[in-house]
Amino acid sequence: QQPQQPQPRELSVIAEHQQRIRLQHEQIIQLQQDVRAWRIDRNSANKRVLELNELVMRENLAIDKIESNGNDAIRQARKAAVREAQMCFDKLDSVKEGIKALQ
Question: Closest Cα partner for 52 from 86, 18, 80, 89?
Fold first, then answer.
């Protein structure tokens, strides 16, 4: 049995960014629920959308800076993390539509 190859550092860095994206996604879902239940005012909701959008954008940009150097595992991890970030952006767009209904 061969010893397990150590994972490139880039994979753990991507995993850290991906975890933060997931936490932000949970916050976006909570915001969406607050908007739908009218538990938040329009100005607060808009401010929170901007904050979350900025946080997800920072993570996405950090992931984008990581070079795969031909390593397929790194490329796949980056691709998965970027997909998750895009889901957050899509969800934020949905939240923005819900905010329009707030008074």
Answer: 89
Cα(93)–Cα(99) distance, integer angstroms: 10
CA 51 centroid distance within chain: 12
Q: What is the DSSP letter of 40?
A: S
Please say whether the beta carbons of 59 and 21 come within 8 A: yes
pLDDT one-digit tens code per residue, 27-78: 999 999 999 998 999 999 999 999 999 999 999 999 999 999 999 999 999 9
The encoded tokens of residue 9 equal: 């550092």
| pTM of the complete model | 0.86
For residue 26, report the phi and psi dihedrals to the nearest 5 degrees: -60, -40
CA dihedral 76, 78, 82, 84 (to 10 degrees): 70
Evaluate the CA torsion angle 91, 96, 100, 103 in order and state its sign.
positive
